[in-house]
């Protein structure tokens, strides 16, 4: 499988087990994963902007990913996979937790979407390359980030588009994303480990090592009256697009 190292397990087993325990409630917008349902439209807004910027003429199309293959790494129960399928893509979702994949497949079938879901590490799956690769809120759960990004890059077609998001490692994120968010039940306890967060500068350097250049970057911020939205403020969370150098 080229440069993929099947023995190189990048997702910590305890991280996969933690999210697997939430699988059955993943699609409940008022359940333990409610925060994902709130942020997902914001993420998808950025993903659509990135698609329109990457492929000429895509902005005029209702299904800009028609004829294209998309991969979502760390897909959970399919919150990103399903909208990508609705944009026309042939979608593959990969997750380290088999329970998440089962929940995702059941939900896709129930809503009539044909999405291929696979359990495992992306490095250990012979799935080829993709026009679009998404990987949201995953890298902060990864032990060996350079190895993981090499595996991600290996799945990207030569002219493909990558979109990733992650929390920033700032004083604000330590207080709000870890302490306050868990205290009030906004995210399940144990979701985030602040020391594993990476800054945008660190992320760009890691992507460069994997042969990728960032093409756009936005913060995901929150404020009263507006809720979660794309912003120039990256102090809590950010999302970026990249392509091969």
Structure overview:
This protein has 245 residues and is an alpha/beta fold. It has one domain (13-244): Vaccinia Virus protein VP39 (Rossmann fold, 3-Layer(aba) Sandwich), CATH 3.40.50.150. The protein has seven helices and eight strands. It has helices at 13-20, 34-54, 81-86, 98-110, 145-154, 171-183, 200-209; strands spanning 69-73, 90-95, 116-119, 130-136, 156-167, 212-223, 227-231, 237-244. An eight-stranded mixed beta sheet has the order 3-2-1-4-5-8-6-7. It starts with 12 loop residues before the first helix and ends with a strand. Mean pLDDT is 87; it is low at 1-8.
Residue share in helix: 25-40%
Query: Strand count, sense and closure of the main sheet?
Result: 8 strands, mixed
By CATH, the architecture is named 3-Layer(aba) Sandwich
Beginning-to-end CA distance, first to last residue: 22 Å
Secondary-structure-based class equals: alpha/beta
Strand content: 15-25%
* Order of adjacent strands in the largest pleated sheet: 3-2-1-4-5-8-6-7
The pLDDT mean sits at: 87
Q: Any idea what the shape is?
A: globular
């Amino acid at each position: 499988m080229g440069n993929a190292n099947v023995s190189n397990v990048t997702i910590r087993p305890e991280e996969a087990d933690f999210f697997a325990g939430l699988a059955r409630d993943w699609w409940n917008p008022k359940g333990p994963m409610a925060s994902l349902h709130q942020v997902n439209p914001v993420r998808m807004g950025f993903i659509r902007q990135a698609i329109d910027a990457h492929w000429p003429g895509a902005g005029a199309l209702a299904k800009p990913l028609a004829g294209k293959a998309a991969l979502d790494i760390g897909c959970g129960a399919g919150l990103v996979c399903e909208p990508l399928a609705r944009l026309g893509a042939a979608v593959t979702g990969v997750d380290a937790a088999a329970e998440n994949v089962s929940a995702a497949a059941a939900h896709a079938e129930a809503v009539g979407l044909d999405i291929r879901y696979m359990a495992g590490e992306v490095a250990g799956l012979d799935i080829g390359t993709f026009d679009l690769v998404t990987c949201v809120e995953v890298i902060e759960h990864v032990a060996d980030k350079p190895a993981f990004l090499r595996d991600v890059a290996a799945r990207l077609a030569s002219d493909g588009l990558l979109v990733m998001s992650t929390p920033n490692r700032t004083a604000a994120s330590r207080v709000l994303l870890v302490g306050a968010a868990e205290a009030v039940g906004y995210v399940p306890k144990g979701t985030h480990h602040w020391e594993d967060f990476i800054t945008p500068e660190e992320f760009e350097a890691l992507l460069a090592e994997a042969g990728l250049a960032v093409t756009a970057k936005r913060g995901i911020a929150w404020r009263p009256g507006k809720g979660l939205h794309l912003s120039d403020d990256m102090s809590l969370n950010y999302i970026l697009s990249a392509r091969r150098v």
